[in-house]
Fold:
Amino acid sequence: MPILNKWEYNGAACGIWKVTETAGELRSLLTERSVSDDFSEYKSASRQLEYLAVRVLLLDMLGRECRISHYDSGKPYLQDYDTKISISHTKGYVAVIIHPYKEVGIDIEYHSDRVKKIVSRFIGVEEMILIEEKLRSVSSEEERDRLTLNMYLLFWSAKETMFKMMDASEVDFISHLHVSSVSLSGTPVSYSSFDGSMSASESRTAKAMKMDMEFRVLEDFVCTYSCLD
Structure:
């Protein structure tokens, strides 16, 4: 499995891997220490690959195998390692972020025009204004289309990351999750590949958490990640 990227963010370790192996090849890299009985419940070949790839990525990041369990809410945790963890996967890629004690979140989304059909479900009026402000400075129609799609994906991914850190139920992506700013790092040569940061907050819980996050946009996917102070 070729590692695509591995980096540190606010004390957290992050990793993205591109999955090119078969399930058998991935399974040969792991022992029963990290592959539990629930693996047999996954009948889909793609889900088996994701399951195994996440555990191989963790092995690379931590230097030893760990067993992943889940709370009733579905939030993952490591049985034998005292750390916070968030996991995401999309077509051909898996992503993980871990921190010794801070709450973390990560999401990765494969490029797809399908997000355009559900924009009204997760982007509010003020957030759409933020997107339109970014588009004004782009003169090329092709680049505007590319940036529009990437911004939609980024907002969806950002809210998925926020949702994972909240660990709350009945969260509405428009009324409870709010992106207040988006900053790109410099002026990208092409809007198919760039990075930057976002400021966000949630109004679903009594904590009313504020969340700063960073993002990476590459040819195949967008990825957002955050670590609460």
Notes: The mean pLDDT is 93. The first strand starts at residue 3 and ends at 9. The CA atoms of residues 34 and 55 lie 7 Å apart.
